[in-house]
Write a structure and sequence with these properties.
The complex is a heterodimer of chains A (384) and B (301). With 384 residues, chain A is of the alpha+beta class. Chain A has nine helices and 20 strands. Chain B has a domain at 89-257: MetI-like fold, CATH 1.10.3720.10. Chain B has 13 helices and two strands, in the order H-E-E-H-H-H-H-H-H-H-H-H-H-H-H. In chain B, helix 1 (11-40) packs antiparallel against helix 13. Classes of the chains: A alpha+beta (384), B mainly alpha (301).
Chain lengths: 384, 301
């Protein structure tokens, strides 16, 4: 997982700029299909040149949200603004957005060239200009040799590139990508993720991507909106979503995390203490954003496995942020080893250790009594 | 396909499976066809069966073969009736096929766009008329189209027609077209439906997304992709319509000239088996042309 953000991208944060004007705005948008509420009173701002991800499990409304922007669905309530203009009543074929479909939706009776040229011809572009643009697009996706092929003569990865070329050929203001890499195998997917990022910077378009793959969202996005049941659970940069999840749902959905249930035992500003039967000690940590905790409230402590230290040596007595348990299982994954530690109350806590040397013998083994510790700011207490 | 080293060792069984349809065609098509060809090269005779020469035994077979002549074929070119009948058949078949396409395409399109659960019911409804005899259905059209028939009564009841006015469709080509379009509609609708139904609806969304309004998208995406169905439907209708006999005979009266009717008259009224056989052979040769085109089309698609 690559969470490092490059120097160019770090400066890009128009959402933090109070004077920033959103490019795409969903305003109290609700979409109902009969009794089913696909999108529930959702408000969302996306900025120009942003690479924005809608992330969530299937059925969370992310695709519906995108299809409303493309014009294939109309919001039941609320409005969608693009560059300040209300999109209501504008049919899909007149919207300055293009979509890359999950199934690619390449026209099977047309060559690669004709597929890419389709939208340009539709705009009434001069034929020599079309040829230039198509050649440029083919070069961009490295398919110059396949111009005369039909879609069924291409591999899955090549088809994905044609779909991408076709959707960016018209230089839309916004490119919508519906699970763009879902049909590719893992290696190809990872490569393509970085190509997509480069392409977005090169073309200077706003990209809105729908995905259920959190790794993909983390890699490519400037910001991510995690969706659940038609509402946004959290919006933030990949690092914010990962390190400061707002709710149990987001914490659990993104990456691997240990959730330890308990009750708030002390409140001091944003610092909370948590106790739980059978885990032995007290856990001190910062409250998640928006948590207005009171003593006695049900809460849970969330900590990523890579931030948990595992040791056989007992820390000084009375220390906070210590859990005691027994090694239940060890998973060797090559780069890391995962220790599954069972606490006295049966809760399993995962701790990962990077395998820095090639020694196969590990100092900690099955059924060892171990202590789990972590720095004070490694975890977070969630009250929602 | 791997042919020499079949791991399952079932290559004999495979050939047997391939041989069955060929054998079927040889027995039930090729053999009767050669009998027809043989009769078409014979002369009429007052005999049973009514033609000469006949194969009695192997000894005289060669003599019989030497008596074969192309007189009947020459006769077909000499009498303008036959050429007119062939041309008229082709013309009626062509117009009917175009009418069928015009009527069948919207039906098939509507079926393919209907909700999934409804589609099978609609397909059933298209096939449903087959449960009644074809002849009875054509007879029913006589009752509808004849001057004092149901349609006239309806038009009179609606005061579109005066009490003395009558529909003058029956025994005209119009009635034949109505009958043909009605009878052959399932053969046009079903292949069209099959082609349209498997079309991916997101292709139309993609077209719209790229700036293509719905009507243009139909001609640029839907229609080209349904061409296999269009070709199949047209040939499935055109070929049998050329040889159609019952509909022009019952609905078209004496005014309609079609080769199927001519053939029937030669065979049953004139008892001229050799000439009617020649008519049949020529008809088959005419139809081989579109069939070959159809085959090539299917290979391409």
């Amino acid at each position: 997982m690559n969470k490092a953000v490059g120097p160019i991208k770090r400066k890009f944060a128009p959402w933090d700029d109070p004077a920033g004007v959103p490019f795409i705005r969903f305003e109290n948008v609700t979409k109902r299909f009969g009794d089913f509420v696909a999108v529930d009173n959702l408000t969302l701002d996306i900025y120009e040149r942003e690479f924005f991800s809608l992330l969530g499990p299937s059925g969370c409304g992310k695709t519906t949200l995108m299809r409303m922007l493309a014009g294939f669905e109309n919001p039941t309530e609320g409005r969608i603004l693009l560059d300040g203009k209300d999109l209501a009543g504008i049919p899909p074929y007149k919207r300055p957005v293009n979509m890359m479909f999950q199934s690619y939706a390449l026209f099977p009776h047309m060559t690669v060239e004709a597929n890419i040229a389709f939208g340009l011809k539709q705009d009434g572009m001069e034929s020599d200009q079309i040829n230039t643009r198509v050649a440029e697009m083919l070069r961009l996706v490295k398919l110059e040799k396949f111009a005369k092929r039909k879609p069924h003569q291409l591999s899955g990865g090549q088809r994905q590139r044609v779909a991408l070329a076709r959707s960016v050929a018209k230089r839309p203001k916004v490119l919508l990508l519906d699970e763009p890499l879902g049909a590719l195998d893992k290696k190809l997917r990872e490569e393509t993720q970085f190509e997509l990022m480069d392409l977005q910077i090169e073309l200077g378009m706003t990209f809105l991507i729908v995905t259920h793959d959190q790794e993909e969202a983390m890699t490519v996005s400037d910001r991510i909106a995690v969706m659940n049941h038609g509402v946004i659970a959290q919006i933030g940069t990949p690092a914010e979503i990962y390190e400061l999840p707002a709710t149990r749902y987001v914490a659990d959905f993104i990456g691997d995390i240990n959730l330890i249930e308990g009750k708030v035992s002390a409140v001091s500003g944003t610092q909370l203490s948590l106790t739980s039967e059978g885990i032995g000690g007290v856990i001190d940590a910062e409250a998640a954003e928006g948590g207005d905790a009171t003593v006695g409230l049900d809460a849970c402590f969330a900590i990523r496995p890579e931030k948990v230290r595992i040791s056989r040596e007992a820390p000084p007595a009375g220390s906070h942020n210590v859990l005691e348990g027994e090694v239940w299982d060890i998973g060797y994954l090559g780069d890391i080893s995962v220790y599954r530690v069972k606490l006295a109350n049966g809760t399993i806590v995962k701790a990962t250790v990077a395998n820095m040397t090639r020694i196969v013998e590990r100092p900690i083994t099955w059924e060892d009594k171990v202590y789990l510790t972590w720095p004070r700011d490694a975890g977070i207490i969630l009250t929602k | 396909m791997a042919d020499t080293k079949d791991p399952t060792g079932s290559s004999k069984a495979k050939w047997l499976v391939v041989a069955v349809p060929y054998l079927w065609s040889a027995i039930f098509f090729l053999a009767p066809f050669f009998i027809i060809v043989k009769i078409s090269l014979s002369q009429t005779a007052i005999a049973m069966p009514p033609y000469m020469p006949q194969f009695k035994d192997l000894a005289t077979a060669w003599d019989a073969v030497r008596q074969f002549s192309l007189d009947n074929y020459v006769f077909l070119t000499e009498d303008p009736l036959y050429i007119a009948a062939y041309l008229s058949s082709l013309r009626i078949a062509l117009i009917s096929t175009l009418l069928l396409l015009a009527v069948g395409y919207p039906i098939a399109y509507g079926m393919a766009r209907a909700p999934k659960g409804v589609r099978n019911v609609l397909v059933m409804l298209v096939i449903l008329p087959f449960w009644t005899s074809f002849l009875i259905r054509v007879y029913a059209w006589i009752g509808i189209l004849k001057p004092e028939g149901l349609l006239t009564m309806l038009l009179q009841a609606l005061h579109i027609f005066g009490p003395d006015q009558q529909l003058k469709i029956f025994n005209t080509e119009t009635a034949v077209f109505i009958g043909i379009v009605y009878s052959y509609l399932p053969f046009m609708v079903l292949p069209l439906y099959a082609a349209l139904e498997k079309m991916d609806h997101t292709l139309l969304e993609a077209a719209a997304d790229l700036g293509c309004p719905p009507l243009q998208a139909f001609w640029k995406i839907t229609f080209p992709l349904s061409l296999p169905g269009v070709v199949a439907g047209c040939f499935l209708c055109f070929i049998p319509i050329v040889g159609e006999f019952v509909i022009p005979d019952l609905l078209g009266g004496s005014g309609t000239l079609m080769i199927g009717k001519t053939l029937w008259a030669e065979f049953f009224n004139n008892r001229d088996w050799p000439v009617s056989s020649a008519v049949a052979v020529v008809l088959l040769i005419i139809l081989v042309v579109p069939i070959v085109i159809f085959q090539n089309q299917q290979k391409k698609l």
